[in-house]
Amino acid sequence: MSAEKGSAMVPLATAAPRRPTYPTPTARGESSFRLPAELRAAGQARRRVRVALAAWGVPTPAAEAAELVVSELVANAVRHTASGTVHCRLWDTGSRLGVEVTDEHAGPHRPRQRAAQAQDEGGRGLALVDAVSLRWGVTAAAAGPGQRVWAELPRPTARIAGAAPAGHGPVQPAETRS
């Protein structure tokens, strides 16, 4: 399945014999790692993503959104599949950040966004992913029975404190009057 902003969930084309499409960017930065499919994996993934994005100079709000997405996707893979490990991939194209989590076992159901009720303890993860992502989707893993869940997020460029927006000249300090 796939989701785009402003649209309902739309199934990926399954009739075509070719490999399913998913983001394959030319990355300015790329990192991947494998974790045991254990409850603590989401926290470990967040920490690794935080370190990589800091090294790439990604602004804090975008980095925090990517940490949230990887945490939700890893938690889903651990909770809802019979995987022994999960593989995470992160990339930075300069204009977008990508997060991808591949598990080893697709199980009977593919990930889907659902409407959690106020009293539900879970069921909001993919809604959060949808809220902070430009788009996200699910494809079959390149090898084996697993699945790949990916998301693309906006990657704003960092601004230097006190710098003027392009074409607006220097920022002047506010006058103080006594």
UniProtKB/TrEMBL annotation:
Keywords: ATP-binding, Kinase, Nucleotide-binding, Serine/threonine-protein kinase, Transferase. The keyword Nucleotide-binding applies. Residues 13-28 have a biased composition (Low complexity). Residues 1-30, 103-122 are annotated as: Disordered. It comes from the Bacteria. The keyword Nucleotide-binding applies. Pfam families: HATPase_c_2. InterPro entries: Anti-sigma-factor_SerPK, HATPase_C_sf, HATPase_dom. GO terms for molecular function: ATP binding. Residues 35-132 form the Histidine kinase/HSP90-like ATPase domain. Gene3D superfamilies: Histidine kinase-like ATPase, C-terminal domain. This is ATP-binding protein. It comes from Streptomyces chisholmiae.
